[in-house]
Design brief:
UDP-n-acetylglucosamine1-carboxyvinyl-transferase, Chain; 29% helix; 4-stranded mixed β-sheet; alpha/beta; binds shikimate-3-phosphate
């Protein structure tokens, strides 16, 4: 949701508590959105276990309800039921579809709505979302026949969609983005003919896995699994979806335990889809004491428990095809870099500039306030490790992943940190502050 500037209570974060015990992070955000959306366009009911009860998936559920889909109340620990209306069952909403802070809601919804012939939809969101590029979805959808209009030549919300008959085509996307890929595939479900998406590098593949489980016909191939073809004409059937814990939320605990002396944590039930595990590879590269236990498969997604202990860390270098596999973990990796020996380098990460905030600029600014030695580049940053961070007044700048990353940084700083706008964390991890208190005691 849109966060008002500085009207919330700042949070005092004491330095130095070690983190010990076990934690179960909430459900994966990407999988939660998809389970709601695919359940809505399937025939029959979809039961979702472990759905993330946070602001972003609530935005998706609210949009679906506004189009006549029955979604049961979303409460922590309870199974959510979606009564599917079928591929073409959405009612035209009588008000704006509010996507809140959620880029995934808006982009996947654009793909889903573009082919609803004869219906009109308007999508908007909070100030952050209204500033994020939507042309990357609107342009390929236009190639399929979609009519999407918005500010800045259709790049910025509010966006109006006039449902049109779509045609399948082959689309080369300039950036590796699962949101763009998924939007095109969803539009392809009702297009005439097959739709192929070719990405420059593989992005997370939750849509492909789940669409297949719901009965869609999809083929994945190409070098590095960068090519997906969807053939329409196969209706989706409601399923039971079990959502694993979100590795992007687990990342805060993994880094916190790895950098804070005396820490030892087990993070349970974490999704380990290979298109998301770049963070584990970097922590291994750094020499972190981390191990995976009880590897298992749950409803088409690999899952395991992660154990992590404090230890000495080396600097890392990341770039290229690894970036899409850890794109949301870069803010907390910047914190890890502050605690490592040597200079870490992040490259090819210009995408961070168009996330919920410009995460390169925001992390450079906020960690800089804490005394970090870093240099920001157009597509990344260099961070000198080994120095001490000092407690300071910092601000999430309304970004959930920044809020939680700064909490991790506060743990290794000398002196107390005051974090402004901590409530941003509720976008993806509403229980974060409670878990932090419990694990620190
Ligand atoms: C997401 C994909 C990523 C990620 C976002 C969630 C998804 O964005 O940053 O938090 O659920 O598909 P891009 O696909 O734009 O890289």
């Amino acid at each position: 949701m849109g966060l008002p500037a500085h009207t919330s209570t700042p949070l005092q974060l004491p330095a130095g508590p070690c983190l010990r015990g076990r934690v179960r992070v909430p459900g994966d955000k990407s999988i939660s959105h998809r389970a709601l959306l695919f359940g809505a366009i399937a025939e029959g009911d979809t039961c979702i276990e472990g759905l993330l009860p946070a602001e972003d998936p609530l935005s998706t559920a609210a949009c679906l309800r506004a189009m006549g889909v029955t979604v049961s109340e979303i409460r922590a620990g309870e199974t959510v039921t979606v009564q599917g209306v079928g591929l073409d069952g959405f009612r035209e909403p009588t008000a704006v579809l509010e996507c809140g802070n959620s880029g995934t809601t808006m982009r996947l919804m654009l793909g889903l709505l573009a082919g609803r012939v004869g219906r009109h939809f308007v999508l908007s969101g909070d100030a952050s979302l209204r500033g994020r590029p939507m042309g990357r979805v609107a342009a390929p959808l236009a190639q399929m026949g979609a009519q999407i209009h918005g500010r800045s030549d259709g790049n910025l919300a509010p966006l109006a969609v006039q449902g049109q008959p779509l045609r399948g085509t082959t689309i080369h996307t300039p950036v590796a983005s699962a949101q763009v890929k998924s939007a095109i595939l969803l539009a392809g479900l009702t297009a005439a003919g097959a739709t192929t998406v070719i990405e420059p590098a593989q992005s997370r593949d939750h849509s492909e896995r789940m669409l297949r489980a719901f009965g869609a016909q999809l083929e994945v191939g190409g070098p590095g699994l960068t090519q997906v073809t969807l053939t329409p004409g196969h209706g989706l059937r409601g399923q039971t979806v079990v959502v694993p814990g979100d590795i992007s939320s687990a990342a805060f605990w993994l880094v916190a335990a790895a950098i804070t002396p005396g820490s030892e944590l087990t993070v349970e039930n974490v999704g380990l889809n290979p298109s998301r595990t770049g963070i584990l590879e970097v922590l291994e590269q750094m020499g972190a004491r981390i191990s995976v236990h009880s590897r298992r498969d749950v409803a088409g997604e690999p899952v395991g428990d992660l154990q992590v202990q404090h230890g000495p860390l080396q600097a890392f270098e990341i770039g290229g095809e690894l970036i899409p596999r850890l794109v949301d973990e870069i803010p907390v990796l910047a914190v890890a870099a502050c605690a490592a020996e040597g200079t870490s380098r992040i490259r090819d990460a210009a995408e961070l500039r168009v996330k919920e905030t410009d995460r390169l600029a925001v992390m450079a600014r906020q960690l800089g306030t804490m005394g970090a030695r870093l240099e920001e580049f157009e597509d990344g940053m260099a961070i000198g490790g080994g120095g001490e961070l000092r407690g300071a007044e910092v601000d999430s700048e309304t970004d959930h992943r920044v809020a939680m990353s700064l909490a991790v940084a506060a743990g290794i700083a000398r002196g107390r940190t005051t974090l402004h706008r901590p409530e941003a964390a509720a976008v993806s991890y509403p229980g974060f502050w409670d878990d932090l208190r419990r694990l620190s005691s």
